[in-house]
Specification:
Two copies of one chain form a homodimer. Chain A is globular and about 50 Å long. In chain A, helix 1 packs across helix 2, helix 2 crosses helix 3 and helix 2 packs across helix 4. The relative contact order of chain A is 0.12. Chain A has six helices and five strands, in the order ααααββββααβ. In chain A, strands 4-3-5 form a three-stranded mixed sheet. By secondary structure, chain A is an alpha+beta fold. The first copy, chain A, has two domains: 85 residues, Orthogonal Bundle (Arc Repressor Mutant, subunit A); 58 residues, Dna Ligase, domain 1 (2-Layer Sandwich), CATH 3.30.1490. Chains A and B meet through helix 5, helix 6 and strand 5 of A and helix 5, helix 6 and strand 5 of B. The structure holds a DNA duplex (25 and 25 nucleotides).
DNA sequence: TTTCCTGCAAAAGCTTTGCAAGTAC
DNA sequence: GTACTTGCAAAGCTTTTGCAGGAAA
């Protein structure tokens, strides 16, 4: 992911392309860890000492609202963010970490859910389903 | 749900049965809304003016740890709790409410996931899967 | 040049914790 | 009687907000 590409993505999603937003998005897109706002803040601040944590939060909210990232709710502690907005399953470990389920397994999980079932749910509940998250709760064998 | 039954459940799960814990569990078990700690606090306090919010939090943590309730992580605002610990799907609306997917549909969603697939994930990731949550993200048509 | 964004600090909201008194077992 | 729980207040952590200055379009 280049800065140029990030700038383009921001604009394509209707956001102003500021250096700060590019920085946050680059930091988010360049890791597979699901970092929280504070961790992203530290990452960006290493290169841009002027960065503000409030700006990280504001940016993440803008990114999520425009569909450029997902906010993963976390039962314990701070929310975590993911630049991969495709549907994929997460594993939440006993100690609160969130890790991706490998793509092939994740795809198997998602493709097990029939679109016709989703449509039936939409009809029954009267809502448009925008997305579906599958979250596995796991206990690490050593814990 | 009677108080006697609540007392029994608490003991069966290795917890001391205090009036406060019974109150919180009764409040949680008697609603299908997924209330947050503060809402449960208000509910209990209506009858037990001495109740403390800290005790509600402590109790919910104890209940969740012992398997008597689930803590539902919430992207925006406070965590919500559910006395129904069976696997069932949730729908998160655009405005942050969490509602149950009707049981038959929820069961269809869960039964779509093959146990063999779960076992393969356990093998590949080296973890024991304790549970699986399916969360639908929905946009209410009127919003 | 207009509108939106940033940075700072302060506030707000959610949750946990220390401790003395009280309660379950 | 012992160990755990409660209630209160205070602290801790995460997130949002007000506002003046600055940058994007």
């Amino acid at each position: 992911m280049t800065r140029q590409k990030a700038k383009q993505l921001l604009r394509d999603h209707g956001l102003r392309a500021t250096r700060q937003r590019e920085d946050v998005y680059l930091a988010l897109a360049s890791t597979k860890l699901h970092k929280c706002a504070d961790e992203l803040f530290e990452t960006v601040r290493a290169n841009q000492p002027g960065m503000s944590l409030a700006t990280v939060y504001n940016t993440l909210e803008a990114l999520a609202a425009s569909g450029l990232c997902r906010r993963l709710p976390n039962a314990t502690g701070a929310s975590r963010y993911d630049a991969d907005v495709s549907e994929h399953a997460h594993l939440v470990t006993a100690d609160g970490r969130v890790v991706d389920v490998p793509m092939d397994l994740s795809n198997q999980l998602h493709s097990a859910i029939e679109p016709t079932l989703i449509r039936e749910i939409e009809k029954r509940l009267g809502v448009k389903i925008n997305g579906l998250s599958i979250e596995l709760r796991g206990a690490d064998p050593r814990s």
